Amino acid sequence: MTRWPLPEPMRMALDQALCAGKAGEVPIGAVIMRDGKVIAAAHNRPRALCDPTAHAEVLAIRAAAAALGQERLDGCDLWVSLEPCAMCAGAIVHARIARVYYAASDPKGGAVEHGGRVFDQPTCLHRPEVYSGMGESEAADMLRSFFRERR
After folding, report:
1. Which residues are known to be catalytic?
2. Biggest alpha carbon–alpha carbon distance for the chain
3. What is the torsion angle, in degrees rounded to the nearest 10, for the CA atoms of residue 141, residue 14, residue 20 and residue 81?
4. Residues 39-93: tens digit of each pLDDT
5. Which one in 21, 60, 76, 129 has a CA-CA gap of 20 to 30 Å to 36?
6. What is the C-alpha separation between 28 and 16, in angstroms, rounded?
7. CA pair distance 58, 103, nearest whole angstrom
8. What's the distance, CA 47 to chain centroid?
9. Which pLDDT belongs to residue 105?
10. pTM for the complete prediction?
11. Is 102 helix (H, G, I), strand (E, B) or coil?
12. Quick check: helix, strand or coil at residue 30?
């Protein structure tokens, strides 16, 4: 079977996840792109910032909104190493992210294809296109290794 190289934004999200892991944070990384350009990149930092909302997606959304000078990120794509949780899915909706690409599924905490399936709810104000699985094994291995070392 031929393995295709990862799209550069997903490679960058996985590199951000690696940074998070090295810093003792759960290894999740996110990148926001618009028109082929990186607008923001971030990784999990709840421990470092003493902020339970400092997930990679939320930090990337905040940075992208600041960089663009607007709260709506129309036309932007979010690349993230793990399926977003309910909080992050809500932030994606409010930011009006056009497309979400995530590597690994999260049956326990994910809220896109698992759990609350936020984007499928009738009350959801915006539904981004969702693509999953690119870089899944690398992201999942990184997470398993991180948690194995702490048990």
Report:
1. 57
2. 45
3. -70
4. 999 999 999 999 999 999 999 999 999 999 999 999 999 999 999 999 999 999 9
5. 21
6. 7
7. 17
8. 17
9. 97
10. 0.94
11. strand
12. strand
- Strands 37-43 and 29-34, sheet pairing: antiparallel
Structure tokens at 7: 């799209």
pLDDT-based confidence at 1, cuts 50/70/90? very low
Residue from 16, 24, 11 nearest 146 by CA:
24
Q: Which residues contact 20 (CB under 8 A, 6 or more apart)?
A: 26, 27, 28, 29, 43, 44, 45, 56
The identity of residue 32, as a single letter, is I
9's tokens? 């934004």
Give dist(CA 82, CA 144) in Å, integer.
Answer: 12
Specify the length of the chain in residues: 151
Contact 104, 28 (CB under 8 A): no
Enumerate residues 6+ apart whose C-beta is below 8 A from 127: 93, 119, 120
CA quadruple 140, 147, 89, 58: dihedral sign: negative
Phi, psi of 82 (to 5 degrees): -140, 145
Question: How many CB atoms sit inside 10 A of residue 131's CB?
Answer: 14
